[in-house]
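Following up on my earlier thread - several people asked me to post the actual chain instead of describing it. Fair enough. Here it is, all 365 residues.
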Amino acid sequence: MQTGKKRALDLILTLDYELYGDGSGDVFETMIKPTHDFLNMCGKYNIKSTIFFEIMEYLQIDAEWNKGNRMNYSENPAKAIKDQIISAHNSGHDIQLHIHPHWINAKFENEKWCPDSRYWKLTKVPDQADKNFPLGLEELLGLGKESLEALLKSVDPMYQCNIFRAGGYCITPSEKIVRSLKNLGFIADSSVIPGAYLNNQYYYYDFEKLPIGSPYWWVDTSVDEPVSNPKNFLELPVFARKIKRYKKYDLQRVRIALKNRSANITKIKDKVEGNQSIVDKVKFFLEEECLTWDFCLFSEKKMNDYLKLAWKIAEETNHDFHPFILIGHSKEFLLPANLERFIRKNRELNYLTLKDAVSKINNFN
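Reply from S.P.:
Thanks for posting it. Predicted structure:
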């Protein structure tokens, strides 16, 4: 329990930079423009964020353009992505690795991207390349790291890609993934939602036994098995609280979902996969869900509710440093007014990057 002067509250804005999971979306409308607005807002309030860059998607788009396929674009989308990521890095934002393996076998067919949904989960990637997937797990993670470092070391020779986020939070069971990340020199992961569980055809993660509100923990072999002694790998979870699933669908979320109705309906169907009867589907929406603090999808009221809980946790914590990680997606940063009002009304908050947070944690230990 902290006593005396009220501590500062540290928030980390993390942005997953990508198209929709089904491959749909215009690069300029779902990535470039909203991220431009996000970065401008960050610049206005001197905020530094962490951007998790879906590098495999970028590599596929770049390869397709270089083959002469314009993909219905009048200008090179891969160059626009590269230029924006470099600009964000040069402005002090932290750029780290995000991977959805289903992009590895993706094809551009019938005027759209068709990812290989068999490999939506990182845990489906084989240990070694086989006839269905051309890379082993460590090769895939290594390719992501090397590609991102090649892009940013062209402007900053000191840049390191060493923090990871798995697509769709699908990182459990994580023993093989953690081992590969460590072998490649990664120092941290941010793929966990304490208290959350989901299991269907496309999603699987099980973090139910992890206590909600933990700011970070050390990892030896698995992200969901904290160890007491400091090791060389950290888990920094996304902050979440339990809420009835249907309550997350407020006006803000629905308005943004309607911007790409087809992709979002598909996403909801994927998450209720396996609940065959109407009764089961209703039960799914009446269940509690660990809802992440999403600065793109949250109304101002939800932002304030989560902030109150964060203050309470911070006042009771036994940690010298207790950051709270928020999440957003470039494709969903479409109604930014709520976030800007939140920032303006809460000037006492500190914002830092995951890279900064890892450095602080290591200094405390």
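The chain has a mean pLDDT of 92. That should answer part of your original question.
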